[in-house]
From TrEMBL:
<dbReference type="InterPro" id="IPR047661">
    <property type="entry name" value="IstB"/>
</dbReference>
<dbReference type="InterPro" id="IPR003593">
    <property type="entry name" value="AAA+_ATPase"/>
</dbReference>
<dbReference type="InterPro" id="IPR027417">
    <property type="entry name" value="P-loop_NTPase"/>
</dbReference>
<protein>
    <submittedName>
        <fullName>DNA replication protein</fullName>
    </submittedName>
</protein>
<dbReference type="InterPro" id="IPR028350">
    <property type="entry name" value="DNAC/IstB-like"/>
</dbReference>
<keyword id="KW-0067">ATP-binding</keyword>
<dbReference type="Pfam" id="PF01695">
    <property type="entry name" value="IstB_IS21"/>
</dbReference>
<feature type="domain" description="AAA+ ATPase">
    <location>
        <begin position="99"/>
        <end position="232"/>
    </location>
</feature>
<comment type="similarity">
    <text>Belongs to the IS21/IS1162 putative ATP-binding protein family.</text>
</comment>
<dbReference type="InterPro" id="IPR001270">
    <property type="entry name" value="ClpA/B"/>
</dbReference>
<dbReference type="InterPro" id="IPR002611">
    <property type="entry name" value="IstB_ATP-bd"/>
</dbReference>
<dbReference type="GO" id="GO:0005524">
    <property type="term" value="F:ATP binding"/>
</dbReference>
<dbReference type="GO" id="GO:0006260">
    <property type="term" value="P:DNA replication"/>
</dbReference>
<keyword id="KW-0547">Nucleotide-binding</keyword>
<feature type="region of interest" description="Disordered">
    <location>
        <begin position="247"/>
        <end position="266"/>
    </location>
</feature>
């Protein structure tokens, strides 16, 4: 037991906290299976490595500010036939990140744009890339405020640092010229340096109206689309589908059972 305690102390001193915590149970398992010493060591260090990776992914996911955790495996490609699954799987290889290219998801609300952008963000985190998620209106308000307070350069670093910046819900509300100018500065600074995944319910022809300046909108699109993959999703909202299934939106409401007046079942 003294040797066991010393071994645990050494593991903790080396920063192998998970290995120290499971040392005794893994020794017992190794004894029962009569594992050779090298196999026991591989088992113990493998558990430590897995625990460290789990902590790493949990931390990087938290720092990315993802609104929820969803994967490509959870996306219902059958419900959205306009989405080319092969193209999405190709994007999941993250070649676009290595090329500092952009991904733009267009389509009406509820068709899975945010789900796909988050799922690609998770793939990027798993591959070791920095990721940051932000709603478009929060981003532009932040940049506009920083510009007014003469600290735009410092605040811009937050959005330039990650290799993948996810900008969600662009076009939900209109922006003024100051916000449009700040967005142009961000897009220009990231151009060919880092990837942007952007979701929008507005077609490109409407961006001038959204930004309140067609010239700035054209300049933004010129840089955003130069190296990009555009996925236009045409389909029904997942949220409305669930409401329809529950009889809460359109269609025939679910049949209500009527009890006979005598209280007996039909």
């Amino acid at each position: 037991m003294i040797a066991l305690e010393k071994a645990r102390q050494y593991l903790e001193q080396l920063g192998l906290s998970h290995a120290a915590a499971v040392l005794e149970s893994r020794l017992e398992a190794a004894a029962q299976k009569q594992l050779p010493y090298p196999d026991f060591l591989v088992d113990l260090l493998g558990l430590e490595a897995a625990a460290r990776r789990e902590r790493y992914l949990r931390t990087r996911t938290r720092l990315a500010h993802l609104p929820f955790h969803c994967t490509l495996e959870q996306f219902d490609f059958g419900f959205q036939p306009s989405v080319d699954e092969r193209q999405i799987r190709e994007l999941a290889t993250l070649a676009f990140v290595a090329d500092a290219a952009n991904v733009i998801f267009l389509g009406p609300p509820g068709v899975g744009k945010t789900h796909l952008s988050v799922a690609l963000g998770i793939k990027a985190i798993e591959a070791g890339y920095g990721v940051y998620f932000v709603r478009a209106h929060e981003l532009l308000e932040d940049l506009r405020r920083a510009q007014a307070e003469h600290r735009l350069d410092r605040r811009m670093r937050v959005y330039l640092a990650p290799k993948v910046l996810i900008i969600d819900e662009f076009g939900v509300c209109p922006y003024d010229r100051a916000a449009a100018t700040a967005l142009f500065a961000l897009i220009s600074a990231r151009y060919e340096r880092g990837s942007i995944i952007l979701t929008s319910n507005k077609g490109f022809a409407e961006w001038g109206e959204v930004l309140g300046d067609s010239v700035i909108a054209t300049a933004i699109l010129d840089r955003l689309l130069h190296h990009s993959h555009v996925i236009n999703i045409r389909g029904e909202s997942y949220r409305l589908r669930e409401k329809k299934r529950a009889g809460l939106f359109g269609g025939t409401p679910p049949r209500r059972e009527v009890m006979p007046q005598d209280g007996s079942a039909e």
